[in-house]
């Protein structure tokens, strides 16, 4: 079954309940800052396991204690429910 791209109105509505995420370059985006490189890399490792289990992988970068994450669904040609699901799970990692 094809993955549906969310409309701009649907994206805006979903952003309202997704703390700290914004739209950047037509993708969901969040910037994280950790105490040091080890903490940042540990976070990326935990996200990698979530993403692999969901078969949905982020576009991201890491410099020392900073991690930038962009989420989009290439098969849908934009942001989909899968991106919001992964973003919510990433947020939960930080609360646990």
Write the layout of secondary structure elements.
Elements: H1 8-15, E1 22-24, E2 27-33, H2 37-54, E3 59-63, E4 66-71, H3 81-95
Counting helices, strands and paired strands, the structural category is alpha+beta
Low-pLDDT sequence parts: none
Helix content percent band: 40-55%
Count of individual helical segments: 3
Radius of gyration: 13 Å
The run of helices and strands is HEEHEEH
Q: Going across the major beta sheet, what is the strand order?
A: 1-2-4-3
Report the portion of residues in β strands.
15-25%
Shape: globular
Number of strands: 4
Q: What does the largest sheet look like?
A: 4 strands, antiparallel
Q: Output mean pLDDT.
A: 94
Distance between the termini: 33 Å
């Amino acid at each position: 079954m094809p993955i549906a791209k969310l409309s701009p109105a649907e994206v805006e509505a979903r952003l309202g309940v997704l703390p700290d995420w914004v739209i950047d370059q037509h993708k969901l985006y969040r910037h994280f800052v950790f105490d040091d490189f080890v903490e940042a890399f540990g976070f990326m490792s935990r996200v990698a396991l979530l993403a692999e289990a969901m078969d949905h992988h982020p576009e991201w970068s890491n410099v020392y204690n900073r991690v930038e994450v962009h989420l989009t669904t290439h098969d849908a040609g934009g942001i989909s429910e899968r991106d919001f699901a992964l973003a919510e799970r990433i947020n939960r990692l930080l609360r646990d």
